[in-house]
Design a protein that fits this description.
It is a single chain. About 15% of the residues lie in helices and about 35% in strands. The chain has a 15-stranded antiparallel β-sheet with strand order 1-2-3-4-5-6-7-8-9-10-11-12-13-14-15. It has a domain of about 180 residues. The radius of gyration is 22 Å and the shape is globular. By secondary structure, the protein is an alpha+beta fold. It contains five helices and 15 strands.
């Protein structure tokens, strides 16, 4: 299984997997496949090409100065990486089945599998898609023990629904990873998913901006309660990502809204929504080389640079 640990706020890894192979598709098969999310189209595209060129690495312990590496850009990049790896965890198996023709076809149904689950010895996994309306598709990834009776129920791992609005992969979708429910049904899950109860993704791809919202819910006793992402991508290349981290112990909630232009210049606004510093706000702006052009924080006054230098 391919595994990647997230940076930033949560560690997530791919939870399911099947072996991929080549095959042929009918036009109807392609219509079903077009209802499935594509990781590369939904991922955060925060600019970072100039990262190694500018030598932007590490963190500073002293006060920021003009031209220093932007710490809030680095925090935004970490959140963007976590967002993308969450998509990887959720959509890896869906990406894999694009290489495999359906094993069962009905007029309004396609199935892949069941296959031996290479990540859970003794289990089998299948992917099922149903077309309930000409533009409405539901799909699920499910598993059960390979020695279970044929009549025994499948345990859902991922569930999704896509409503097409015209054009390949254009529409709105909800996708859900049901980690804790699977564990409750005695399905072994990757240890990297131990902190996770559910992962929910909602996206809209038939407009500008493309909208992708992602919500991580932690199980009781983990370091976070929820982590909420909202990603927006415009046709112009402008983008934004908002992430809200909420924890129970200590109780606090922090929101970061970062925006960037096609050149990479951007701005991040930090707001403490709950906790000891509730209401406190900070802002930092960076240029196309991700260097500070303006910074203000109530924790490290005075302000550096001018707000007129900000791209937003």
């Amino acid at each position: 299984m391919r595994k990647r640990a997230t940076t930033g706020f949560v560690v997530i890894a791919a939870s399911t997997g099947i072996a991929a192979c080549g095959g042929n598709y009918s036009n109807e098969d392609l219509e079903f496949l077009s209802a499935l999310p594509v990781q590369s189209e939904l991922r955060s595209k925060l600019p970072e090409q100039a990262l190694t060129q500018s030598g932007l690495t590490g963190t500073r312990q002293d006060a920021l100065s003009l031209g220093d590496p932007s710490q809030l850009y680095l925090a935004t990049r970490s959140a963007s990486d976590g967002f993308n790896r969450g998509l990887f965890a959720l959509l890896m198996l869906i990406d894999d089945i694009r290489l495999i023709p359906p094993t069962h076809r009905e007029p309004d149904k396609r199935m892949w599998g069941p296959f031996p689950d290479k990540d859970r010895p003794g289990f089998i996994t299948e992917v099922v898609m149903d077309r309930t309306l000409p533009v409405l598709f539901g799909y699920r990834i499910e598993t059960k023990r390979s020695d279970a009776p044929t009549s025994s129920p499948w345990v859902p791992l991922v569930q999704g629904e896509f409503r097409a609005t015209g054009g390949a992969r254009k529409g709105a979708c909800d996708v859900h990873l049901l980690a804790q429910a699977a564990r409750n049904a005695d399905v072994p899950m990757s240890t990297d998913l131990d902190p996770l109860d559910t992962l929910d993704v909602n996206y809209v791809t038939d407009q500008s901006p493309v909208q992708v919202d992602m919500l991580f819910r932690g199980v009781p006793g983990t370091s976070f309660d929820t982590i909420d992402y909202a990603y927006r991508e415009y046709d112009s290349g402008q983008g934004s990502i908002q992430f809200i981290s909420s924890s129970v112990s200590p109780p606090q909630k922090i929101r970061v809204l970062a925006r960037w232009s096609p050149s990479g210049a951007g701005r991040a606004d930090v707001t403490v929504l709950d906790g000891p510093f509730q209401g406190a706000q900070a802002v930092e702006c960076w240029d196309g080389q991700f260097r500070v052009t303006y910074s203000y924080s109530p924790w490290a006054p005075p302000a550096v640079g001018s707000p007129t230098s900000c791209a937003f």
